[in-house]
Amino acid sequence: MASAPSTQRIDTGTAIAEPVQTKTRLGHFNAARIILYALLAVFCVYYLLPLYVMVVNSLKPLSEITAGGMMALPSQWTLAPWGSAWSTAQVGVEATGLRPYFINSILMVVPAVAISTILGALNGYVLTKWAFRGSTILFGLLLFGCFIPFQMVLIPMARMLGLMGIAGSVPGLIFVHLVYGIGFSTLYFRNYYAAFPTELVRAAQIDGAGFFTIFWRILLPSSGPIAVVCIIWQFTNIWNDFLFGASFSDFDSQPMTVALNNLVQSSTGVKEYNVHFAGAIMAALPTLLVYIVAGRFFVRGLMAGSVKG
Amino acid sequence: MGFLDINQATKSYGAVKVLHETNISVDEGEFLVLVGPSGCGKSTLLNMIAGLEDVTAGEIAIRGRSMNGVKPADRNIAMVFQSYALYPNMTVKGNIAFGMEMHGIAKPEREKRIAQVAELLQMSHLLDRKPGQLSGGQRQRVAMGRALVREPDVFLFDEPLSNLDAKLRVDMRTEIKKLHQKLGTTIVYVTHDQIEALTLSTRIAVMFGGYVQQLGTPKEIYDNPANMFVAGFMGSPSMNLFPAKIIAANGAPAAEVNLANGASAAIPFAGNRMSTHVGRDIVLGIRPEAITDKDGADRNSNAIHIVEAPVEVTEPAGSDTFVVSQIGGKDVTGRFRADVNVNPGETFPFAFNMEKAVAFDPESEQRIE
Questions:
Q1: Which of B27, B24, B29, B64 is nearest to B41 (CA)?
Q2: DSSP state, A149?
Q3: In percent, how much of chain A has pLDDT > 70?
Q4: What is the per-residue DSSP string for B198-240?
Q5: Which residues lie across from B243 on neighbouring strands?
Q6: Which residues in B have their CB inside 8 Å of a CB on A?
Q7: Does A213 touch chain B (CB under 8 A)?
Q8: Which residues of A touch B87 (CB under 8 A)?
Q9: Chain B residue numbers touching A204 (CB-CB < 8 A)
Q10: Range scoring the smallest mean pLDDT among A226-235, A260-269, B1-10, B109-118
Q11: In this model, does residue B213 exceed pLDDT 90?
Q12: How are beta strands B31-35 and B203-208 bridged, if at all?
């Protein structure tokens, strides 16, 4: 009891007598805070350490890595591993670098995300504002589709793609991701539109707007937050997918994830760890970018003012 | 045939009938108010007129044209919603223009009409704002502007004032009435507020349980309610309803009532009314303003009768004092002048204006003439 005020006096440099109890509680509070922040810092380092290792090792010559010292900063900074990973490294049987596969992934992910998001929004609109007989059951089935394990559909899907004539192609991959994506995007939009005031739809009906006009002019402009959530989710899943990419693609249509695996597996002589690190970062960059760019639009309150809350 | 004809219109959801055969004929320029407690079918009827709900049986016609199966957009109606239903992503101007745009009205014409309506509703300075930046009253105004600009045959209002605070509600009420007087448009207006119904309407349809209980002018509804529901629902404080028995006192029919102090009083009816019902048990209905202190009684009435009754509670309300007594086991409220010196517990002369009294059958609850 006696030590608490004196400690306080030393800390603040003042001699003002204050109730002892307040100070002890304040001291306790500070200690808890310090422990909390220290713990958070530890976790922060723990999570950022792999990224650090990847970045520093992708910027040093291979000799520095093989000499040990994974954690050290490069003594000789170089961008050569990045250049190699991008355009000259041996991927599978060809020394093309990751570039063509990166383009494949982009060609796959952009339409797949766009179409699944639009269709999900349309589904959500119909399921909430134009509910029909059996619409709840239909939604249940769509939802069930989200949780079918990927492995289960591999063989039927391969057969389907063959019948459709798009096996082993980028359009085939887009189709597969669309089928899987629509369940989730419908779930997001349905729940979002369920809270969307139906009176707005009715007002638009009286104003003379049709089914698609209402969707396009009234609902979609208010769907910013959920569209961002949906896009982040779909982009991350489709970009990072390996199983479908490995199963349904040919050499010329492989996505980035499969190519990265091939890059790491197919080193001829020595393992070029620095090139592998650079390639891995390249494969992760687009999802990071989506989080940073789209996250900024992740704002709430776009609905404010439409109806009195 | 009227301007808007509701002919045997019914609405059922499966086996549940929420609106029974309803007939209302509205003339051009009328202000019809549908009033009733929640669940009475008034909003359903309005939505049926708007075309947002189908008519199960019967017909709704506007300008002699049957509206069954006609889309809301093609009925030439406009609606103001309780929640305003302003499009959040559009400016005020965009909100008002949307309906015209959908109906293919050219831009110069749109601009002209928006300017007119904005001036009429004094919201020219708000045109570039989004609904989120407006106050409740301003949103209400925009919602009305959006309806007005369409120049529809019939305006539909769905409880447009119930989201506003008390003072604003009164202001907007006056504004709607002014607007109706100025434009002379046909309006169907739904509300649960009986004062709104009485002040705004040219005719009122009082609804309960899916039936129109009474259709008439505000004065008819107020003075001659068709049944006990209408009597109790319309007017505030509501009409006093208490049991009485019709007797012949000195040859004239009178209502015999029991007072709280054990005594009974016979209050003669005006003229020779109820003479054919002598001996019958009734529920007597009389509005608080027809029970006054002696000096506050209506001088033009020929049927003022004094009843000495014990005072139970007095409620000073500024402009008046409400005095409550027990008659026939029911609280009966009289509207006395504010400065009358009356105290609870004492016996005080209540002046009944029997010209304003109505009688109901206790079983059927219908009015007896």
A1: B24
A2: -
A3: 85
A4: HHH-SEEEEEETTEEEEEE-HHHHHHS-SBHHHHHHSTTTTPE
A5: B283
A6: 50-52, 71-73, 77-79, 81-89, 98-99, 102-103, 130-134, 136, 139, 146, 150, 163
A7: yes
A8: 200, 203-204, 217-218, 306
A9: 87, 98
A10: A260-269
A11: yes
A12: parallel
Taken as a whole, chain B contains a residue count of 369
Pairwise CB contact (< 8 Å): B85 & A305: no
A203 vs B103: CB contact, 8 Å cut-off?
Answer: no
- ipTM score of the complex? 0.78
Copy the structure tokens of residue A99: 């570039």
Closest in A197, A302, A304 to B85, CB measured = A197
Using one digit for the tens of pLDDT, what is the confidence trace for A60-113? Answer: 888 888 788 778 888 888 888 888 888 887 777 777 888 888 898 999 999 999
Q: Which one of B84, B102, B133 has the shortest CB-CB distance to A207?
A: B102
Q: Is the pLDDT at A267 greater than 90, yes or no?
A: no
Q: Which residues of B touch A197 (CB under 8 A)?
A: 83, 85
Of the listed ranges A20-24, A44-48, A208-212, B153-157, the one predicted with least confidence: A20-24
- The confidence band for A25, taking pLDDT boundaries of 50, 70 and 90, is low
Q: Which among A132, A102, A120 has a CA at the least distance from the CA of A245?
A: A102
